[in-house]
Amino acid sequence: MFLTLAHRPDEFRAFFAYHDALMDKEGGLSKAEREMIVVATSAANQCQYCVIAHGAILRIRAKNPMIADQIAVNYRKADITPRQRAMLDFAMKVSTEAHLVSEADFAAVAGHGFSDEDIWDIAGSRLLRAVEPDRQCHGHAPQ
């Protein structure tokens, strides 16, 4: 991914500025929860690089050596809170069925204590991955 984005330096800088602004900020989502979103959605999109790289970060941020593997394999069976499950359910729907996201989905995630800003961050954490097309995740740089 880095090699591909480096092909266009302005986009490379913009991507990492957005990444850092979204993933490292303080707010209603912990840094570990933000990484949970990346791991779950990357697993669904079959991006092995992202699952491994962000899984390593998740293990550190969650202080739990098992959580990344559990989320990558099947977040629905992972040892997470109901709040985190709702967060991942919403992120996965945005990731895999965005056209079906409805007010009921927003209400469901808000029902677990997420603010509008938090919900924006959940979707943003997933949408950040959309900037990384599979060919970039797998290191196929333009010639």
Question: How is this structure best described in words?
Answer:
The chain has 143 residues and is an all-alpha fold. Helices cover 69% and strands 0% of the residues. It has nine helices and no strands. The chain has helices at residues 2-6, 9-23, 31-44, 48-62, 67-74, 82-96, 103-110, 116-130, 134-137. Helix 2 runs antiparallel to helix 8 (116-130), helix 3 (31-44) runs antiparallel to helix 4 (48-62) and helix 6 crosses helix 8 (116-130). The two termini are 14 Å apart. The model has no long low-confidence stretch (mean pLDDT 85).
Describe the sheet with the most strands.
Answer: none
Q: Flag low-confidence runs.
A: none
What is the H/E order? HHHHHHHHH
**End-to-end Cα distance:** 14 Å
Mean pLDDT figure: 85
Q: Rg from C-alpha positions?
A: 15 Å
Alpha-beta content class? mainly alpha
Layout of SSEs?
Elements: H1 2-6, H2 9-23, H3 31-44, H4 48-62, H5 67-74, H6 82-96, H7 103-110, H8 116-130, H9 134-137
Helix pairs in contact: 2-8, 3-4, 3-5, 3-6, 3-8, 4-5, 6-7, 6-8
Keywords:
single chain, 143 residues, mainly alpha, 9 helices, 69% helix, globular
Offer a concise description of the structure:
The chain has helices spanning 2-6, 9-23, 31-44, 48-62, 67-74, 82-96, 103-110, 116-130, 134-137. With 143 residues, it is mostly helical. Helix 3 (31-44) runs antiparallel to helix 4 and helix 3 packs parallel to helix 5 (67-74).
